[in-house]
Design brief:
The structure is a homotetramer of 341-residue chains.
Chain A (H helix, E strand, L loop, with lengths): L1 E5 L5 H13 L3 E6 L4 E6 L7 H9 L3 E6 L18 E3 L2 E3 L5 E5 L6 H14 L3 E3 L17 H14 L3 E5 L5 H7 L2 E4 L7 H8 L5 E4 L6 H13 L5 E5 L17 H8 L4 E3 L1 H5 L2 H14 L3 E5 L17 H17 L5
Parallel strand pairs in A: 7-8, 7-14, 8-9, 9-10, 10-11, 11-12, 12-13, 13-14
Antiparallel strand pairs in A: 1-3, 1-4, 2-3, 5-6
Chain lengths: 341, 341, 341, 341
């Protein structure tokens, strides 16, 4: 059902033109004449009213505004699938009772560091290892990642620790090499509306961790999930990582309300990345607890053995001992909301 | 300590002019000459470099930018007072081990409703009763509050329930009547930079609940606390209530990161209002839990016996039974972070 | 006309309850049943559906959302008054063919400076003199203005230059003294939703320059104009002065699109303040030209004889010669869009 | 030159550790000890202090904050190249005295429409034809563009009208086909930080029209230009197209201040797209005039012969007659600021 509001002085001819247009699409129009405005309610399979039709009706003479009531995403919606989706990766389940923690450095820097961190985070209770081999960096002069070599280090770290791997894809041309080494493929915030990349990972068999764009609305985010799902890959994990606002005390503004909002709108699991969200080491742990209390299914935490030597995002990485402490403190919070960690 | 960065082609004369200006203020200047820029470090009691001096130096010939390192607030800062401030109101303490819950309707509507809600929230474990007698409303045609009559109903509800009262002031001319009936005076989000009002409540003996402005940075918010404290009233409670962003799925974006950030910058207690922050009844409880997990000292929760008949903000009010349920669920979360409720 | 969208599984009883509620308000309900949602169109004098009723309907069982179609402001709307409002002050007219330029320092600092600047801006073609005697400052330790003494200097400068005066009110208690000396009363950005102050100036006979709040939507801004107009003062001038966004290269983001948008929604004159909007001296002139090209009825420009000694906002003030140059360059731009200056 | 501010209680050892780190990078450190903070000025070729080094210093013990003074972009900066860059395409020059107008539909829809629009906009004075064959759409169910077929229609329209073509690339894998047909390659707002795509077009011989990201700061935007230029392609045209803010009256908030700000920071030409910026047909013309008055080197305008049948963005497209009228009205504005059109 959609609603078309006519301008106060829309002519009878304009009104009829719109109704005819709707009928030509197989839709039914019900006209309500108020004292100041006339409204056309659109009945029928309004999923036919896609963006193009909507825009063209909005541009038609006599139309003041068009309001859409149905959500523009379908596969991602709770209406489509009532039960919560759980994403299984080896023995791990994202979206179940257990809060999954995905931990590791921002970038893969070298082999021994990767293995060391993997063992440390595994010991502290992490379920997944993260690390970027292809890195989106704002400067062309910054370290861009080790590429396939980095993926190999990740694979070795998986072998040594038993932890499945989450790593980022930046380019459709890298899909084969990323698929070869990863267990979960990450779409970074800056690529949330890289639609071609979404279609490519939509054809992959690997689960996708879809980060929210810096200025993406929750609706746009779910539309990006829909892109992936429309190609057949239903294993999408949403990751809140902070949005851009006027506040500069934190790197981004972590939008934890997105967790309960998403839980209502979609069946997909939701995880939170407080490291990028806040960007300051000492505030990661309180925000991780808050995320779990708000109902998140998992956490993404940057851990580095030597943050002051990290090739990226050192400022927001926890040292292994701080990570261990955080994991310990998370346990009672998880239990308090009926989860485990 | 402040830093003045000169333009690449600033002249010797311009440089000397600035140094002389600094020296005339009793400050010392240290010049560092880099390969591309010259920098003047300002040493001494730079609190003398107030906004006016800063702006005028910024406007001086040859200056590219001025960077301030010291915080512009003093009384509100952790440097000024290392220990956490606790605000005592009767038997209640805000900022102690116990999470204080301030509950009640948005507006005071009538006497029996006020008394009924007061008893209900008291029974469920609230520590304070809230309710507005003077209401800031975006429309001049909306209900503007009952005024002194509303304050009397609040006082009666306090008598019947034993709960101290939090109520909002909107106008310096109302200070006497507000002081007469209230236990804590609220400054609403839209008045966070109503500086005259801040000065007036700064001279009051009552504690002040200072809500964050819709687009206020944390620094500006602390400057508003400083206004109040500069007049002698040290009992300021900061209340995060959501900021304005591009996201429309929630009424505002509740910035929970503000809690740990404030805990580091200031000694003042911090409470969170998830009702206004999110604006949707069913998401209040998860965000209340998240606030407690993030380290908040208290919560402000809208409760109404008949939300669908409320004269304001019905959509975000909890019914007493939902409030009771929330309080029950908050208990283990508070314990998980070493607090009680 | 308003629209109430019911939840997919709203019961017949819930639907009837809402319809009864509407009928009790003297409104008519038309029900449209779509394949997935039922929609209730509200017909009749929906101005009765004020904020309270709207919120309570939104909180009623079975309701998914409420959409309002009519604008919540009436007196400020183009529907209410089709012809453009012109505000007359002495021989000056704001909203006519001539672009009015309101120029002067941020703060009144001393008598001779005020008279000097007044003469300079008059000579360069300004129509009004501005200057603050009561200054809203983020820090309690900053210069707060000279108060009545400053107003006297402004009056003297008016006498010497012939320019009418625009000055800011911050506190309802100052209305008498402000009215005594000013020709136009300014409501600053931070007080745009200081509703009590709006009501006070709504009862004044002086025209009001209403600055847009830092994070105010255009709709909220017009609601604040409506507050003033609802008390009988129809001479409201809207002033765009930049909104708060994530961008830090400029002090605020000057939203020039607000000019054509307002011209369509309201009959009130619209002026633009590029000095506060951009906050950087050298960018004031291009943005002033852009404002005129976009259709603004006037400009507010900070001018100071010695910006580097200004007690506030020196960084964004033009020197008289730069102001003169800007006025010269504005002339052909004004002519290009059928105006004069 | 960079500045490192130490924490109030940073130890001597921590300070020395940082100085040693700087010296190991071939940099010199000058220490200024204030009464409350110690500051380390970094002298030498601080371009060695890239993001990694900066982050790691920020994460080092004893460090409060790091401030960078030099701009992180080099090739794009005015310091690097003082004279304005002009981009030549056939007989057209972007960045010269003439304001270049790039006009056409959002999407290429069919052959006859493309040819018709091309002839119309040419006649009205446009310098370039735009049209998307690959379309980034928020919904996977929306029209995604005609692909190569659309490029062929564009080429035909160029042949018939003589206008060079601007068209968007979305995927590195499309570079060959896009290069084959286009004269200027567009990077859309959503791909501004698709870094791999930037590197690919950085190796192209075609000029690049780089749209600003929805929530990109001006600095980030210039860093994306730097990505392209770092690969050798110096012909980058910056296009302001509106940023995302809280305001919903317009589709985006057109940030015209970006024009003078960019003119100071960079030598690259700057154009403005008021169609996407405002998103409402009737406001395109005033904002186009404002853009020219602010100093823009060109405009991007959506023109469609039948907006109400457009397959995308119909609401913001001008009809040819409205476009012709706008071009006529732009002429005196361009002259008023010393340009022609």
């Amino acid at each position: 059902m959609d609603i078309i509001v006519l301008k106060p002085r829309a002519s009878e001819k304009e009104k009829k033109h719109i109704i005819k247009r709707l009928e030509s699409l197989g839709l039914e129009a019900t006209v309500s004449k108020g004292t100041e405005r006339t409204i056309i309610g659109v009945i029928g399979n309004t999923s036919k009213v896609n963006e193009e039709v909507e825009n063209s009706i909005r541009a038609a003479a006599g139309v003041e505004t068009v309001m859409r009531i149905l959500k523009p995403y379908r596969l991602a919606s709770r209406e489509f699938k009532k039960t919560a989706t759980t994403v299984k990766v080896g023995k791990q389940v994202i979206g179940g009772k257990k809060i999954c923690v995905i931990a590791g450095p921002c970038s893969v820097e070298n082999q021994s560091m990767m293995v060391e961190i993997a063992k440390e985070v595994k010991k502290a209770g992490a379920s997944f290892l993260r690390g970027g081999a292809f890195k989106p960096r704002t400067s062309p002069y910054s370290f861009q990642g080790l590429g396939e070599e980095g993926l190999k280090y990740l694979a070795l770290a998986r072998e040594k620790s038993g932890l499945p791997i989450v790593t980022e894809i930046m380019d459709p041309r890298d899909i084969d090499v990323i698929e070869k080494y990863s267990d979960v493929i990450q779409i970074g915030a800056r690529n949330m509306q890289n639609f071609r990349l979404l279609l490519v990972v939509g054809e992959s068999k690997k689960p996708i961790l879809l980060k929210r764009g810096l200025s993406a609305t929750i609706k746009e985010w779910l539309m990006s999930a829909e892109y992936i799902m429309s190609r057949g890959n239903m294993n999408v994990i949403l990751c809140e990582r902070g949005i851009r606002t006027f506040e500069t005390a934190t790197r981004n503004t972590l939008d934890l309300s997105a967790v309960p909002v998403l839980k209502k709108l979609t069946h997909l699991p939701v995880v939170v990345d407080p490291s990028h969200g806040v960007g300051i080491m000492e505030h990661v742990s309180p925000m991780a607890k808050a995320a779990v209390a708000a109902g998140a299914d998992g956490l993404v935490i940057e851990v580095h053995t030597h943050p002051e030597e990290a090739l990226s995002d050192g400022e927001q990485s926890l040292r292994p001992d701080a990570f261990k402490q955080m994991m310990k403190e998370l346990k009672p919070v998880a239990q308090a909301v009926g989860r485990e960690i």
